[in-house]
Amino acid sequence: TSAVEVAKAHLDRIAAIDEKVHAFLHVDTEGALAAARAVDGKRAKGEKLGPLAGVPLALKDIFTTEGVPTTVGSKILEGWIPPYDATLTRKLKDAGIVILGKTNMDEFAMGSSTENSAYGPTGNPWDLTRIPGGSGGGSSAALASFQAPLAIGTDTGGSIRQPAAVTGTVGVKPTYGAVSRYGMVAFSSSLDQGGPCARTVLDAALLHEAIAGHDPLDSTSIDAPVPPVVEAARSGDVRGLRVGVVKEFAGEGYQAGVMERFNDSVEMLRELGAEVVEVSCPSFTYALAAYYLIAPSECSSNLARFDGLRYGLRTGDDGTRSAEEVTSLTREAGFGPEVKRRIMLGTYALSSGYYDAYYGSAQKVRTLITRDFERAFGEVDVLVSPTTPTTAFPIGERADDPMAMYLADLCTIPANLAGNAAMSLPCGLAPEDGLPVGLQIIAPALADDRLYRVGAAVE
Ligand code: GLN
């Protein structure tokens, strides 16, 4: 089959079902077909192409795409056409990957259900009345409904892994700094990390290899070789590997069926020759509280650029109002309630008089969490836990309860705070509701290959 045929098959699938799923905010039919034609042309000329040339992909609408709308799920960027490609977008194109379109997401990647999108929610393909996770619910739903075999997400506090878990797909948050943030709209810069989403561990590894690598345009980009993720995904050998079960990620609030499937995976690892021990990381209990100070603080600073003057939406500019009034009206109209909540929380936490008590304390907790990881990785090679405490919840159930929504990130946030690599992959269905359960694997920074080795073993 030609790349054009493959692209057409996926575009047809999108046309047939995405009205129901709503995974995409924008489908780039012409761009996709042109990219596919280019791959077919090169192949006909006998040019050597990479392993993913001609493979379609769904791109989270947080990465800039030259000439193609980028909204970040927000009204404040509605109609904005970026004049440049993110480094990740460029790398996808260079690999011959066919970008089908841009996927739905919680506004500015703030959320765990995709219900905070200004363009309406996405359904979970397993049950359209349930959430597909968030913030990257569009990408995971596109994979789970076979609208795309590959997708890209971003993970600030779990937005790749939690959607992967609740849709039965694979999602990886690479080591912080492994994938360039240039052209990725900033939410919380010290946590944000783009990464691969796929239906198999090997597909994720191939995509990982295509998007990772040093980028001089991102000052926090790591200048180190990409770990051998593809080789690890092909091996799956876990004999003698030391696996730590995080003791704190169990108990109250964890669905019985989630724990059952998680324990099955741990048993499987033991049978395959891994050495399984229990590990305690006591500071993880405070990770959620620290995250919900650090992430809003950084967001309040990052989102100051959306002032209604430079780009995107402008409201109330009738020639009589001051720039300050226009900015304020634009932000009032352009930002949704969760984004406003975060800006206010962050501004408060950073204000003089409260800075030490809130932001300062949160940074100390962040250090304690990093130390817990260091101690744990002195004893074991990887840590494992359920990705999320529960399976996909119904749309609307937690929409008015931010605390309940934030609990979806309980197990994923520590890896962001410490900058480690982490993966979620399917580990079966919960018996009580028949919905997918995710297994989370966490590896030390720069040891991303271990995720793929363990993932391939239990897949
Ligand atoms: N759900 C978390 C939040 O709302 C994580 C978001 C993310 O990883 N982008 O902040």
From TrEMBL:
Question: By its UniProt entry, which SUPFAM superfamilies does this protein fall under?
Answer: Amidase signature (AS) enzymes
Its family remark reads: Belongs to the amidase family. GatA subfamily.
Which residues act catalytically here?
K60, S135, S159
Name of the protein in its database record: Glutamyl-tRNA(Gln) amidotransferase subunit A
Which NCBIfam families does the record cross-reference, listed alphabetically? gatA
Q: Which organism is it from?
A: Streptantibioticus ferralitis
Its EC number(s): 6.3.5.7
Q: Which reaction does it catalyse?
A: L-glutamyl-tRNA(Gln) + L-glutamine + ATP + H2O = L-glutaminyl-tRNA(Gln) + L-glutamate + ADP + phosphate + H(+)
- Pfam families attached to this UniProt entry: Amidase
Assembly and partners are described as: Heterotrimer of A, B and C subunits.
Provide the alphabetized UniProt keywords. ATP-binding, Ligase, Nucleotide-binding, Protein biosynthesis
Residue ranges constituting the Amidase domain according to the UniProt record: 5-451
**Is ATP-binding there in the keyword field?**
yes
Q: What does this protein do?
A: Allows the formation of correctly charged Gln-tRNA(Gln) through the transamidation of misacylated Glu-tRNA(Gln) in organisms which lack glutaminyl-tRNA synthetase. The reaction takes place in the presence of glutamine and ATP through an activated gamma-phospho-Glu-tRNA(Gln).
